[in-house]
């Protein structure tokens, strides 16, 4: 005799989502009041802020910040909503995750990944080396290569230092604006998590869908992982053409017109995209559950599920939520090639599905 599986939501996860929604709503009130009382200097008046959707000119300028503060007050109550009120929390997720978000967070995240990519590349030989002696030799070789690059003039470390100084100043200048933009996207993710928790709580005791079974999740999760991987290819491979005389980005480019700094940034961004695509495959292959041989200390040990689930969930939410403003911006600027070069509207949901399947296989999400 077998018993049909039923859904049993994780109570701790539900409480965490409710607490996060409450705290997020608490911060929405002062942010809304800040923009209302200081329209010229508020976080939504920055020169980089380009809203996806704008209100008609007939609507007073104070309406939007007042609505944000009011949404914060209502959110304090909605954070404690019963399962039947999940459409309200879903509305919060859509409005803040897709309608009020901009492309700034994804651009900042992309350049951040590209910035750290050279450090990762320099660390790879050390990670691949076997034994303590091998790692010391690899580290010495990497250091020697870096010194040689500087002495031969291939890399101008003085220019690198000046670039880092300018980059730090730029980040400091947009810090508050970027923090608020990240807060908007985080709100979408938090309200999405709360909505899912409420939906699951409403299904408590009912038979779980068959697709939540681990063996079924392994199949559709593998398909989702490969779809997410494929979404990284258009942009990554396009940037790789900058290594050839036939540079291309939405059309042929004159390679002689691409300065070295732009070429380096472009290639780093391309490699970051391709690296992210490869990591998507970790959701379905063995190296996503056990540390590979080249990882020192932890090699062969099980990968803690949250090490993969948490960053994958963050990236999936970011890609999904910025897809609407990204497509809108591409259409508005008549840059339709960006719609297929950055298929976030597929990449985000596919990565989310792959992450869910991974969580089911690892026992983090259970159908009972």
Automatic annotation (TrEMBL):
Keywords: Membrane, Transmembrane, Transmembrane helix. Coiled coil: none annotated. The chain crosses the membrane at residues 16-37, 59-78, 85-102, 108-129, 136-160, 180-202, 223-244, 264-287, 307-328, 340-360. It comes from the Bacteria. This is Integral membrane protein. The lineage of its organism: Bacteria, Bacillati, Actinomycetota, Actinomycetes, Glycomycetales.
């Amino acid at each position: 005799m077998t018993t049909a599986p039923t859904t049993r939501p994780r109570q701790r996860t539900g409480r965490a989502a409710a607490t996060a929604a409450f705290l997020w709503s608490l911060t929405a009130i002062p942010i809304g009041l800040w923009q209302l009382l200081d329209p010229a200097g508020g976080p939504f008046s920055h020169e980089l802020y380009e809203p996806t959707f704008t209100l008609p000119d007939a609507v007073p300028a104070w309406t939007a910040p007042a609505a944000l503060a009011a949404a914060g007050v209502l959110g304090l109550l909605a954070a404690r909503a019963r399962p039947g009120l999940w459409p309200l929390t879903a509305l919060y997720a859509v409005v803040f995750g897709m309608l009020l978000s901009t492309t700034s967070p994804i651009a900042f995240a992309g350049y951040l990944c590209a910035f750290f990519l050279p450090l990762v590349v320099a660390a790879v030989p050390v990670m691949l080396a076997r034994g303590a002696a091998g790692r010391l030799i690899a580290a010495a070789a990497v250091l020697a290569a870096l010194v040689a690059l500087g002495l031969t003039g291939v890399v101008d470390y003085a220019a690198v230092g000046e670039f880092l100084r300018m980059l730090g100043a730029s980040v400091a200048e947009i810090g508050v604006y970027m923090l608020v933009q990240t807060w908007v996207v985080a709100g979408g993710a938090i309200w999405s998590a709360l909505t899912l928790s409420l939906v699951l709580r409403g299904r408590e005791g009912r038979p779980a869908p068959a697709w939540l079974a681990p063996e079924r999740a392994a199949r559709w999760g593998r398909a989702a992982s490969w779809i997410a991987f494929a979404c990284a290819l258009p942009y990554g491979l396009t940037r790789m053409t900058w290594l050839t005389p036939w540079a291309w980005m939405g059309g042929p480019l004159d390679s002689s017109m691409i300065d070295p700094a732009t070429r380096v940034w472009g290639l780093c961004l391309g490699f970051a995209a391709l690296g992210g695509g490869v990591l998507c495959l970790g959701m379905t292959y063995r190296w996503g559950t056990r540390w590979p041989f080249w990882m020192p200390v932890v090699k062969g040990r099980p990968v803690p599920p949250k090490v993969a689930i948490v960053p994958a969930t963050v990236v999936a939410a970011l890609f999904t939520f910025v897809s609407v403003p990204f497509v809108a911006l591409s259409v508005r600027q008549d840059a339709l090639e960006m719609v297929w070069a950055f298929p976030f509207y597929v990449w985000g949901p596919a990565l989310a599905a792959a992450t869910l399947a991974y969580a089911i296989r690892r026992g983090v999400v259970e159908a009972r």
